[in-house]
Amino acid sequence: MTGSLPSIIWAPFLPLWLLVTLAVICLLPGLYGVVRGSRGVLWRTGAILLGLFWLANPRQTHPHMQTQPQDALLVVDMSPSMTIRERQKLIQQARSQLLQQGQRLHGLTLHQLDVSGGHGQGTRLFEAMDHAALSLNSPTGIFLLTDGMDHNIPDQLPPSLQDATGRIIPLHLLLSARGEETDRRLRVLNAPPYVIIGQTAHIRVQVDDLGTSNGQPVEILEHRPDGQTNVLAHTHSGQPVELDVPVTHAGITLKELTASPLPGEASLRNNSTIIRLQGVRDRLRVLLVSGVPNQGARVWRTLLKADPSVDLVHFTILRSPDTEDDTPLSDLALIPFPTHELFSQKINSFDLIILDGFRNQNILPESYLENIARYVRKGGGLLVVGGPEMTQTGTLQDTPVGSVLPAHIPADNAIMTQPFAPKRTALGLSHPVTQALPEHGPWGREWGPWYRALRTDQTQGRTLLATPSGSPLLVLDQRGQGRVAMLLSDQIWLWSRGEKGGGPQAELLRRLSHWLMKEPELEENQLDARIEQGRLTVTRTSLTPLHDVQADIIGPDGHHTPLPLSPSPDHQGLWSGSMTLPVLPEQTGQIWTIQQGGLNTTVSLPDTSPLENQDLRSTATRLAPLVARSGGGIFWLGAGGTPDIRQVAEGHALHGAGWAGLPLHQAPLATDSTSTAFLPGWIALVLILALMGLGWWREGR
């Protein structure tokens, strides 16, 4: 093919020096005649110079051009939003037809690129295209098959999506719909992360109509576990709404809100939202009484003061009533121990009482000690940390408090003083307090050692930690409505100092104290559920033997399904089972309710693509500016079908009704060209004769 960018070369019939000499000789008389005013000299001089120019033989060279191969990207959006309606079908049909056309066009290669999207990052088509274009030799165009929703649209195509000359290649947008769509979404504007139990959470939500004007009437409904719905509010799209949600229990409260459908909207997938409210108790009050100053008191104080949800009241008993000291009481800079206020008036206001190294020594009258035992039986929590004082006169186990303690210390040979590493018992491997304690850390293969512990001659309840010889170290029990624990060593502070690597001291004490305060996540009898990859897994924890365990699964539509649970071979007291969840209509609901043995829990379908679900329309509005700047076209697959691919010359339109163009780029062949005379001989002869004639005519006047 002959190009349009010639160049000039010279192929003179006479030596170039001779032609230049003759031209100079000709010019001198001509200039002299012009100066003297001679008529016709100028025309005759021009005729002679034209003849010399023809003898110089200027020629035009035309390089032979070669059409370059074409590499086009066929990008297919496979993000979660493409599963809506018939988008997948339209996209796959267009892919197949474009590939067939590409095979019939000479020099064109279509490179397929599937972009999955989702995974919390939305649809990111241009990142994938930018990476894929690096492997193209001659990028010439892009066919983008999508719904038009991309979450990383650049202002212009990156340099990798330009041709060899730096020109932007056309981006053709093929949309999986018949035309612009509408969508309705429900979004949460404000929701508190934590709500005190018994109070009401104030939720602020708004319904948005996308692709159409706001202001249309809409209802906000609540899905109930039985499959029914309640209308919570009547409002209009685009207007915020305040909703009140009561929180009645600790832990997570799930609430599903749904906006009534918009006629003709693309999908109902984002008409619903799940609100997760964490129910917490009001500030937890802890009373810590240290019998004598010790290293463990600092550990407890540091742990409890670091928890913003805990109000700590701490007293250390420095002087007992029978201490012999002649110092007047008025001169002592000590706060009197408010026994009556703490153990009579306000004892029931505490969620947990910790007695660390406490020996009564006539500090508390028996009526106050009876109050402590009664406090436990009525629902309070008590932790006793024992050391050598448990073998001395005035030990707690010889007071009314002893009736609620889960272990008894003998009077003789009760103190063991030798290095040992605490171990979890078989029950401790399953109990929530000690099950998840870290096994690996600075301590290596086992926790750091303690050097002192108490022997017991009687225990009841559950032993979670023990010495290597089996002597109990941590014993838990429930008395009445309350809970009590005994730590039979005052050496746990060694772990905080990193003795031979230390141990999980902070986590153990945190779990222990929160179990005593009845935190739901540490309950011994639990029912948990989770949904992953379309499967519901139910886990039942019980420290008492269960037989024929079966959970009742209640779907969002109210349908009941039994699920047998099997005991775990690796963990005592653990039963589990799983099932594949059925595919339900979009508007049915997202919360599943699980019941077993008087326990119940709820779990919701995870929103794996929150960014993707913000707008589910098929629309050209987001990509149209970029398509226009590239010279490409926009095609609706559901209305006009798949466009025809055309190879068009550079500079021509790149799209039209029913067709999308790819520009043909041409490059010259370095070894092949043709040449033609710039001034053909016959034209030169005619011009010379004409000039001579004009000169003769001018001279004769």
TrEMBL record:
Putative glutamine amidotransferase domain span: 355-496
InterPro entries: Class_I_gatase-like, GATase1-like, vWFA_dom_sf
Signal peptide interval: none
Annotated keywords: Glutamine amidotransferase, Membrane, Transmembrane, Transmembrane helix
Transmembrane segments: 12-34, 41-57, 677-697
PANTHER family per record: BLL2462 PROTEIN
Protein name according to UniProt: Glutamine amidotransferase
Organism listed in the record: Bombella dulcis
